[in-house]
Automatic annotation (TrEMBL):
The keyword Transmembrane helix applies. It is found in: Cell membrane. Keywords: Cell membrane, Membrane, Transmembrane, Transmembrane helix, Transport. The chain crosses the membrane at residues 29-47, 59-78, 84-102. InterPro entries: EmrE-like, Small_drug/metabolite_transptr, Small_multidrug_res. SUPFAM superfamilies: Multidrug resistance efflux transporter EmrE. It is a multi-pass membrane protein. The keyword Acetylation does not apply. It comes from Haladaptatus litoreus. One of its GO terms (cellular component) is plasma membrane. This is Quaternary ammonium compound-resistance protein SugE. One of its GO terms (molecular function) is transmembrane transporter activity.
Amino acid sequence: MSWKILIIAGLFEIAWAIGLEYSDGFSKFWPSVGTVIALVISMVLLAEALKTLPVGTAYAVWTGIGAVGTATLGIVLFEESAELVRVAFIGLIVVGIVGLHLSSGGH
């Protein structure tokens, strides 16, 4: 169950990271509210996952999910570079996340 919670926490990390862009430096009220709510939910879920998962593994996976999702949405939503090299390095982060999951006995 902790891995599922951690994945959801990572999805909320993506939400708050993207929300930062939409909040325009916290100058837009509703995007700022959504960003802060997503940040709090992400942290609470990460803290819950840390009750049973090693901190190093959980934190690396959480940030990895956030990095991959945010970079991907940056390409899709904000027309950031989708060069093959960039996408390949994003893929390496995914490999790292999967490797950490498998090597820690996660299921």
